[in-house]
Amino acid sequence: MVEAASGSTVPRRQLGRHLRELRNRARLTVRAASTALEWSDQKIWRIETGQTSMRSLDVEAMCRAYGADAELTKGLMGLAKETKNRGWWHAYGDVIPEGFDLFIGLEGAAASLRQYIKDLVPGLVQTEDYARALIREGTHGVDRDEIERRVHVRMARQELLTRVTSPPTLELVLGEAVLRQPVGGGEVMARQLHRLAETMDLPNVSLRVVPFSAGLHYGLVSGPFTLLRFPVNGDGQPMEPPTVYMEGFTGDLYLDKPQEIERYDGAFTSLWGAALDHQGTQNILRQAAKEFSR
Predict the structure, then answer these.
(1) How far is residue 210's CA from residue 206's CA, in Å, rounded to a whole number?
(2) pTM, rounded to two decimals
(3) Same-fold call for 4-82 versus 97-124+161-293
(4) 33, 91, 226, 254: which could join 115 in a potential S-S bond, CB 3.0 to 4.6 Å?
(5) What's the rounded Cα separation, in Å, for the pair 12 and 265?
(6) Where is the HTH cro/C1-type domain (predicted)?
(7) Which CATH superfamily groups domain 4-82?
(8) What would the pLDDT profile of 121-177 be if each residue is shown by its tens digit?
């Protein structure tokens, strides 16, 4: 059973996947299932993609429509109760972009993250001032209190890298442009770059920079992405399928087909090979910080 500490996202996705498999085994289309249950197609889709919590009675109705046996029905009804568990981010539901709570939940449940970012420092390793400058720029017309709440959300997310119990490993590749974008001004950038250098000392964090001199590399084709992998259960199987997340201006994209995971895994390996080594990355970070401090 998924622990409540991982929040509601993982059990929602697990339940959605089980229900989708049941529907497929029953050879029912989404339209046929929605007709049988007297629900909308959209509701079925949201359940199967893990975007909504579930009532046990609704799960029971779906299992009955799909011909599931009593034991499986009982298990899925129990899993439905887990989808009600609330992660810490739900207290900020009104200030988190629509759909992004899914990523926060996955991030918190992940055993490892491989991330490529080309332009801006990612949220897990931002300083408070850097985060504030980005949020202020991206949220015109909101008041100061709301900006500060958004900053608080971002800072709270970072605790997963230093948590006592099973912190995830983070492999992070940054494009050199990240080091050159003067977000918040010179002093803010200098402190941010020093933070990145310090983050490299964490035992579960590896950070590399792809310099401009690397020329054409895979990241220019793939764009920014995060590849998440999850803990394994007692049978040695992942509790959740690996997932690629890509943030978009008007919507986010999640990929979990094996061939998609393999392709992005290969892209990350290529990026890691094109990047500076540990010492070279430390050197370019500290040199860029000096330039902003002048």
Answers:
(1) 13
(2) 0.79
(3) no
(4) 226
(5) 25
(6) 19-72
(7) lambda repressor-like DNA-binding domains (1.10.260.40)
(8) 999 999 999 999 999 887 777 888 989 998 999 999 999 999 999 999 999 999 999
